[in-house]
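User: Please fill in residues for this 470-position structure.
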């Protein structure tokens, strides 16, 4: 309760904050959590990872019903879309997930406070009401900042969440747009663009760079773009949106070449702005207590997640490292385990990433481009899903597995997968690499047959010596 002194007060109830709070409570700490939303789970569970995956699954089934079932001998008529039911199901998935988090917090006796958190001093956190005034003040030995991130705005393109929407608004459209323009060809833009394309929208993706999915292995990126183009997504690369004006009938955008040149006008029903995310640190009182920031606007921390102010810690999207929910969770666990006298650690070099398009893309470790830049001698092992029996039986042969290994030691340096079950398959690669497995190690492990995971085994064999089935 508010009159007590806590061992830890966590500000933010997303995947970093609530996991940290639960783990700290399990370790015997007296914990409170401050969350400004009415429900727990942060952006990910409420308006991010979970609702978007629900829409991706529903839209994938709609697409399959209309195009893919005949090959299996299943004859159905053209499917009709009940968008209201689709959105209702998405809401039910979110509701069940956030209620599950609330149950876990109660189960672990984490005290929760609804409102924005503000650090007034080391050891003191205020819980603010809607009017900005302090409702309660919490005394604590330690403070953990886990406030996540927010959508990065694009100058000249004002988001109204009606005609010009962020990823949040794109999850709540009342009708399928005739023409959706997605500004930004990163993970979020491609996923949500895929959702609405499958449901019937014409989708144009405008990207400032001359490629999609920056940071992804180049070979995988090129394959993904070809696959999405076959599905109907249109790409305008090397272009920037300088202005957007919303009217009663749609949005008019001004688009010009990224390297300079004449602007042209593009019309759309809906514009989705997805140019990235930035740390959410406003109103936390960081200046007041003297918490130092990095040049990139993130909170500076040491190897144990402590900020420049003793007793104040930070994790997840507000600090360096990939802005991913699972990375934030691991940060939180490592941080509180250290607080409890244990030795927590997160290997940011082995945080897996996934793009939930069709085909999915997943990777962990280094790309070819990073290895070349570092001057590392490496070997490549590749195996296409067209050669995998289970993928053939599933009718999902798009893509391949790519294993990068050290030429001298055979240690696996990176694994890149584009295919129907890439997001699930990458976990095996992450575990193997955490234990510094060689390509031979993965290749010699007995994999069940027939499974899509056999493609990883064969790619590893290809990197070490020779695949059996290619």
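Assistant: Residues filled in for all 470 positions:
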């Amino acid at each position: 309760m508010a009159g007590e002194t806590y061992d830890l007060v966590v500000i933010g109830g997303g995947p970093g904050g609530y996991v940290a709070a639960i783990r700290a409570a399990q370790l015997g700490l007296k914990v409170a959590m401050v969350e400004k939303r009415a429900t727990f789970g942060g952006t990910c569970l409420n308006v991010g990872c979970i609702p978007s995956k629900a829409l991706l699954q529903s839209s994938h089934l709609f697409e399959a019903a209309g195009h893919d079932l005949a090959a299996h001998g299943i004859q159905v008529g053209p499917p009709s879309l009940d968008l209201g039911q689709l959105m209702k199901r998405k809401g039910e998935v979110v509701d069940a997930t956030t209620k599950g988090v609330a149950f876990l917090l109660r189960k672990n006796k984490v005290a929760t406070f609804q409102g924005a958190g503000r650090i007034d001093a080391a050891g003191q956190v205020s819980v603010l009401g809607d009017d900005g005034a302090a409702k309660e003040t919490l005394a604590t030995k330690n403070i953990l900042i886990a406030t996540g991130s927010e959508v990065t705005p694009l100058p000249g393109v004002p988001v109204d969440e009606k005609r010009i929407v962020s990823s949040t608004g794109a999850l709540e459209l009342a009708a399928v747009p005739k023409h959706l323009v997605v500004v930004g060809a990163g993970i979020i833009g491609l996923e949500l663009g895929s959702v609405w394309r499958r449901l019937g929208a014409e989708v144009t993706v405008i990207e400032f760079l001359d490629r999609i999915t920056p940071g992804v292995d180049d070979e995988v990126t090129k394959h993904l773009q070809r696959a999405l183009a076959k599905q109907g997504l249109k790409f305008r690369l090397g272009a920037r949106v300088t202005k957007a004006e919303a009217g009663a009938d749609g949005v008019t955008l001004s688009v010009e070449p990224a390297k300079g040149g004449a602007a042209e006008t593009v019309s759309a029903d809906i514009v989705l702005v997805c140019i990235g995310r930035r740390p959410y640190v406003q109103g936390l009182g960081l200046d007041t207590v003297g918490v130092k920031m990095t040049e990139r606007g993130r909170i500076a921390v040491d190897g144990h997640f402590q900020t420049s102010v003793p007793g104040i810690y930070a994790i997840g999207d507000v600090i360096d490292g990939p802005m991913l929910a699972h990375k934030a969770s691991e940060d939180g666990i490592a941080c509180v385990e250290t607080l409890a006298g244990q030795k927590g650690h997160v290997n940011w070099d082995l945080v897996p990433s996934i793009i939930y398009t069709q085909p999915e893309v997943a990777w962990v470790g280094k790309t070819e481009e990073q290895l070349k830049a570092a001057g590392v001698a490496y070997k490549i092992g590749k195996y296409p899903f067209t050669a995998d029996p289970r993928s053939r039986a599933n009718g999902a042969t798009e893509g391949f597995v790519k294993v990068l290994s050290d030429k001298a030691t055979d240690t696996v340096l990176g694994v890149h997968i584009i295919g129907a079950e890439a997001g699930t398959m990458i976990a095996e690669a992450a575990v193997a690499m955490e234990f510094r497995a060689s390509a031979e190690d993965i290749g010699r492990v007995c994999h069940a047959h027939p499974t899509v995971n056999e493609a990883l085994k064969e790619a590893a064999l290809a990197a070490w010596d020779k695949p059996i089935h290619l």
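For context: The CA atoms of residues 30 and 190 lie 42 Å apart.
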